[in-house]
Request: fold
Amino acid sequence: MNLLNVKAITKKEIKSYINNPAAYIVLIAFSLMWQFLFFKNALIVGESSLRSLFEVLPWLLLIFIPAITMGSISKEKDEGTLELILTHPIHDIELILSKIVSASVFIIYALLFTFPLAFTFSKFGKFDWGVYAGQLIGSVLLSISIVSLGVYISSLVKNQIASLLVTMVAVFFLIVSGSEFLTISIPFSILPIMTNISVLTHFQSTIRGVLDLRDLLYFLSFTLVFISLAFLQLSKRRYGNLRSKYKRIKLIVLLLIGNTLVFSYLGSNVPGRLDLTQEKVYTLSDSTNKVTGGLENNVEITLYASGKLPSQYSPVVQDVKDILRDYRISSKGKIIVKTKDPSLKSEDADEAVTKGIQEIQFNVIGQEEFKVKTGFLGVHILADGKDESIPFIQRTDDLEYLLTSIINKLTAKDKKTIGFLSGHGEKELFDYAFLNGELTKQYETKAITLDKTNPVIDENIDTLVIAGPTTKFEDPEKEAIKLFMQKNKNVLFLIDTYNVDKQLSYADVLKDLFAPFLEYFGIKVNQNIVYDLQSSETLRFTAAGGLNYFLPYPFWVRGIVKDPKDPITLKLNTITMPWPSSIEINDQRLEELGLIKRDLVITTERAGLKTGNFAINPQEDTFPKQNLAVHTLVAAIESKNSQESSVNSPGKMIVMGNSELFTDQFVQQTPENFVFALNIFSWLSGQESFADIKTKSSPFGKLVFTDPSQPSILKYGNMAIALVIPCLTGLVILIKRNQLKSRVYINETAKQS
Reply:
């Protein structure tokens, strides 16, 4: 094979794309349709991620690539130029590679229009360039694979339309072959085969931001197989009359295809991956390595995974096995991993149920009727005679956090204690049920009720939580809290100044406020509710006819993290705070007490304050646009010399005018709030947090705009780029071609004679 021939033919093919107006029309239509589908929901979701952009890509390539490759060989056949090409001193393989490379270059050019999107999104929120790199690499691998298929089909038929339709059908099958749409009606015995055949399975694995050896081998094998088949087809045309030579070539090609498939199959069982994400989402975190590295006794982890699960769980099972392998390596043998298939032995199924693993049910189609099948996919952890289970693993985004927190819960000694004060209308532990469940994996938590006659806070409490009290504190109780703080103990103040009635959508001022207690420390929680016209959550509402629509809700402030490098707000950008009150801090009073403060969460410059009693329904309320300013929502206070603080000095404090942000609704639906809570308790107690693991499950942040026009600029600006650049490119090439046409050829030799 002569690479110079490949280069020359590739250059000629690329020029044919450049000089073809239809190519620009296809490119513009593809780019605009792709971005239109993306922006349909991207700004509503408000995440600085291109995940949904690339998830729809295979379905667009289903049309785009067949339109590009349909004439690769078919056109040459139809116009009778293939025989002419084959008479030249070029090999069939050189022609095929040139066709694939040129088409791939054109498609990669189209994929590069995602870079302006990535760049602009990174300016409005936390953006993971490593994930984007994985998405781009996955898209290129997918495109090259489909191009090789398209070129092969083009070599089979003479008609370009037939090539287009056959390629579209083939790509459609490869996309849906691993989806429930198709696998629900096929026998379980061939489910793994169908899943591994699907390009969608391997593409979705790659666009997460991780390059898995098994996915790379799949795309490589896929491309080599169809290059070989296309070569065989052209060889048949060239050596059709020389049967013995064609048979030798056919044998060699079939052996190559067989070796490729065997190599791919064997490689699919070899783990190995490269984590491209900036936060190393698919690499065990430092916190996990500290927990596993500090194990004194063995920990036994048993994975119960049925072999006959629906196809959508196949990638999950593979990820779980990879993660458990990483745990075993990280622990240097202290973690023993076992895998059991309950579908093979009834004893294993009974054991799984006994250990709390959930048996899931799913529907399959057999003999033209629905049947119910069952299966297991869960993990059991045993350590130091104690055990806990993850009943069912639906996704692996937060599996590392779950495993590490459970292992720590079972093996940790001397846990610190967090006390939740009650008896004054505060939010109880059950109001923070989800958060409490996670805290118990690292701390001891308990409810505390003060004796009104002789109030004393247990000295075993390391951190006290006062969450939204609504009734009056007696003076002795206040003194008990103050005495507790003066013993270098820590307090989290979640102070409400309003009673928000969610049913009536009305806010009433609280009469018996706890806020004045904090004024001794120079902290004032103002009796107001903050609204932010620039940074707030978007809520869905349902009209009378059942029509859903979305509205920004300024009372649910998306607070801005002032310093993402602060240990309390590490790697966070925004915190969702429903109906918060602003806080003010007297620096002079802090100086007198030997304390310092730092603002953690603030509003944007377009935030206002509402006072008195008022409705909180966004459909009825108008938000004044006067007197807008930046307001502090959360602050941290500690001793000036926190490292040298004595037993009798004040401990650390976190103060915010809101107790709702850590309830189940917000910590479950807003990961940033959950991570914020873990960081707060870690900082107050001085105990290492697992929040760094939790933040990995969400490598992207929320989009934050500083001007109402920015979303429109982001959307239409990127779509304009996709339109303008191809048009300008085509215009420049057209001008150059016209200039060449206007030149006059002069024969210098004839002129001299």
In short: Residues 710-742 form the longest helix (33 residues).
